[in-house]
Each structure stands twice: as C-alpha cells, then as structure tokens.
C-alpha cells in the first residue's frame, strides 16, 4: 500500500463500484460524474497497488483483494456514520432538513396527506422529497444517504435493509356514481361483463386482481392500462369502465365504491431503512412518525 494520506470518500466510491459492478451505475447512485468515479478508482488502485476491479463481460468484477476488503470497508463506513449520527442532536421542532423518501404511488396517496399535516405541526422547517427509484438501486441509494427511508411493497429484499410492516389494504371496485352497477350488489358475473381499467407501475404482466381471478378460473377484459392512479378518476367519471384498486388510494375520489365479489390477497406496505442509520435520531424520528401516521390512516 502506498504511503499517502487517504481520502475516506474513496471508500464510499469503492463500496458503490462493488455494489453496482459498473462505473456508470456507481456514478449514478453517488450523484457524481463517471470521470470522478474513474479518478477515485485510479487513486484506490495506487493506494492498494492492485486493480481492485477488472472489466469483464459481467461488469466491473472485484479482484480477490477487493473481496477481502469489502466487509471491512462497509463496517468502517457504518461505524463512522453511527459515530456522527450519535453526536448530532435532533430536535424536530427546530430542525431544518430535507428528507428524501422512496415511495410507491399508492403509498403517496395513502400516507402523504396525513404525514404532511403532522410535519407542519411538529417540524415546520422540515421538507420532504418523495421519489420512486429503480428498486434495484434503492439499497445503495439508502446506503449512500441519498434516500433516507423507503415505503414500498415487500419487494426490497436486501441484507443491508431493515424493514417493518406498515399497513395492509384491500382491493375494491370503483366506478362513476351513476354507473348501472352502482345500485346493485356486485356479483362475479357483473364484474366480468364490464370493461376494466388496470393500474400498475409495471408496463406488462398480471396484477393481484388478475392472479386472483385466474386462481378461480376467470379472466377480465382490460381495455386500458395506466401506470398512475391520478388519471383514473376522470376516466371512470366519463365512462362505464370500472377498476379494481387499493381502497386506501380512493379516499378523496368522488366515485362509487364496492367490495369485490371474490377474494384477493392483502396488499402490504413496509417501511425500510438502511442498517447504517439504525441509530440515527433523525431517521428514527421520521420512521416512527411514518409508522404512527400509517396506524391512523
């Protein structure tokens, strides 16, 4: 190892390259340019007198030395973060800070109104940025501090993320108030005879409702797929289409709502945080407030 003063930020770059196996993706999660990542890697190679990462068909593959170093590097970064966090007092009433949350659209619709109300009362100088990241990158964005908390379905499985159940929800059927079925008890035949709008962040594939129907031998006619809930109410209000959506997203919608005539799995939301901020008082406060709001929603 070269005898030199070491910039500790280099190890954050090392961790990003190791996690992403790509200089471009590492630059993306670190929010720096690719040349900056390349420059940091060159410095690391000089310090350790080792390539550390070799370009292969699978991406930037770690060398044996890099594999040996990664656990120590990650543990050290966590200890440094814990040390800093434990010494910084957090008073929500006076704190001026921006929290960034990864959240699904249904989590936004269900939780944000009440969460913003509580922030206004308890922490008036705190602001939120809500984003929806590529789920494959969320763990590292949280490790790097770019994302502080995540609210999502239980799909963010990663050894560095900790999660707790936040809320469950059911699908219901929605339609315009004067729809011909609005004054009836919705049966399975009625449901299947209608034309449906399906909402999913995915561009293809069956959703929970369609999988539940398939399990009992039915399919429905989907005439329109949307990736966002916000377009749904005006479309339903001007047509005879119906939709099956999470009940929680419909609270402010001027639509008729009915129970589905068949069973569907519960929709679960979880709150996620990175193990490196387990004892960060600010993240702990935000996490507990989010859970409190979810219990009351």
TrEMBL record:
Q: SUPFAM superfamilies, per this entry?
A: Periplasmic binding protein-like II, Winged helix' DNA-binding domain
The record's GO molecular-function terms, alphabetically, read: DNA binding; DNA-binding transcription factor activity
Its keywords, alphabetically, are: DNA-binding, Transcription, Transcription regulation
Domain HTH lysR-type residue range list: 6-63
Q: Does the keyword Transcription apply?
A: yes
InterPro entries found in the cross-reference section = LysR-type_TF (IPR050389), LysR_HTH_N (IPR000847), LysR_subst-bd (IPR005119), WH-like_DNA-bd_sf (IPR036388), WH_DNA-bd_sf (IPR036390), YidZ_PBP2 (IPR037402)
* PROSITE patterns in the record: HTH_LYSR (PS50931)
Of which family is this protein a member?
Belongs to the LysR transcriptional regulatory family.
This one is known as: PCP degradation transcriptional activation protein
Q: Which organism is it from?
A: Zhongshania aliphaticivorans
């Amino acid at each position: 190892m070269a005898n030199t003063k070491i910039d500790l930020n280099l190890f954050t770059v090392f961790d990003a390259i190791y996690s992403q196996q790509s200089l471009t993706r590492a630059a993306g999660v670190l929010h720096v340019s690719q040349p900056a990542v390349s420059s940091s890697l060159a410095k690391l190679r000089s310090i350790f007198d080792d390539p550390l990462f070799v370009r292969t068909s699978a991406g930037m593959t770690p060398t044996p030395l890099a594999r040996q170093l990664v656990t120590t590097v990650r543990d050290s970064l966590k200890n440094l973060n814990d040390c800093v966090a434990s010494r910084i007092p957090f008073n929500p009433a006076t704190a001026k800070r921006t929290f960034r949350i990864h959240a699904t659209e249904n989590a936004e619709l269900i939780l944000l109104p009440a969460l913003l109300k509580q922030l206004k009362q308890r922490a008036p100088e705190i602001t939120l940025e809500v984003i929806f990241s590529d789920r494959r990158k969320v763990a590292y964005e949280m490790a790097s501090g770019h994302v502080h908390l995540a609210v999502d379905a239980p799909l963010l499985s990663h050894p560095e993320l900790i999660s707790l159940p936040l809320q469950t929800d059911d699908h219901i059927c929605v339609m315009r108030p004067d729809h011909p079925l609005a004054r009836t008890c919705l049966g399975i035949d009625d449901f299947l005879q209608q034309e449906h709008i399906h909402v999913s962040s995915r561009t293809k594939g069956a959703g929970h409702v369609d999988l539940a129907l398939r399990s009992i031998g039915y399919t429905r006619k989907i005439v329109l797929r949307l990736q966002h809930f916000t377009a749904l109410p005006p479309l339903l209000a001007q047509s005879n289409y119906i939709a099956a959506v999470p009940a929680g997203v419909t609270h402010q919608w001027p639509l008729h709502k009915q129970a589905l005539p068949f069973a569907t799995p519960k929709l679960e939301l979880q709150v996620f945080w990175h193990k490196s901020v387990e004892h960060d008082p600010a993240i702990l406060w935000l996490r507990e407030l989010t859970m409190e709001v979810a219990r009351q929603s």
